[in-house]
Amino acid sequence: MITGPALLLALLEGSVGAAVLALTALGLSLVFGVMRVINIAHGEFVMLGAVVAWWCSADLLGAHPLLGFLVALAVAPLIVGAIALAADWLVLRRISYDPERTIVATMGLLYIIQQGVLMSYGPDARPLDPPIYFRVQFPGFGYSGYKLIVAGLALLLLAATWLLLARTRIGLYMRATRLDSETAQAFGVPVKRVYAIVFALGAMLAALSGVLIAPIRGAHYLMGADPLLLSFIVVIVGGLGNLRGTLLAAACIGIGEGMISVLFSPTLSKIIATLLVAAVLVVRPGGLARGATP
Amino acid sequence: MRIYALHLAVVAALFAVQFALPAYHYGNVTRIMLYAVFAIGYNILFGYTGLLSLGHALFFAAGAYGAGLTAHWWSFGPVAALGAGVGAALLVSLVTGLIVYRTTGVAFLIVTLMLAQAAFLSTLYFNTVTLGDQGIVLSLPPVELFGAALHLADPAVKYNASLVAFAVALLLSLWLLRSPFGRVLIAIRENEARTRLLGYNTALYRFAALVISGTLSGLAGALYCLLFGYVGSSFASLQYSTLPLLWTLLGGTGVTLGPPLGTAITHYLIDISSGLTSSYMIIVGVALVAITLWFPEGLAGWFRRWRRVRS
Amino acid sequence: MTLLQTRNLTRQFGGIRAVNDVSFALERGEIRGVIGPNGAGKTTLVGMICGRVPPSAGTVEFDGANITRLQPWDRVARGIVYTFQITSVFKRLTCRDNVALAAQRRLTRTTGHRFALPQALLDAAVDEAMAAVGLTEETERIAGELPYGHQRLLEIAMGLALKPALLILDEPTQGLAPGDIAPFCDLIRRTAATTTILFIEHNLKVVLELADRVTVMDRGAILAEGTPAEIEQHPAVQQAYLGD
Amino acid sequence: MGVRQSGKPGHMSRRRVLVAAGALSGLQLAKPFIITAHAAEPSLKIGLQAHRTGIGAAYGLWYERTSVAAVKVINAMGGIGGRPVELIVEDDATDAKRGTEVMEKFANEHKVDFVFGPLFGNVVGAVAARAGELKMPLFVVSEGSELAAGDFNRYVFQTGITNVRSQVTAISPWVIQNVGKKVTMIIPDYIFGYNHRDFFSETAKAQGGAVNAVIAIPPTETSFTKYFSQIPADTDAIYHVMVGPGVLTFVRELGEFFGDKGPKLFGFIDSLEAVDIGAPGLEFLEGSHLWEAFPRYLAGHNTEGAKFYRAAVGIDENGASVDNAKEISTSSHMFGCWETLFSIKEAVEKSGYKGPGDKQALVEAIESTTGYDEGKGHPQGKKQFIGKAHQVFAPQFISKVEGGKLTVVHTTSIEDGLYEPAADYTKQPL
Question: Which InterPro entries does this UniProt record tie to the protein (chain C) (predicted)?
Answer without folding.
Answer: AAA+_ATPase (IPR003593), ABC_AA/LPS_Transport (IPR051120), ABC_transporter-like_ATP-bd (IPR003439), BCA_ABC_TP_C (IPR032823), P-loop_NTPase (IPR027417)
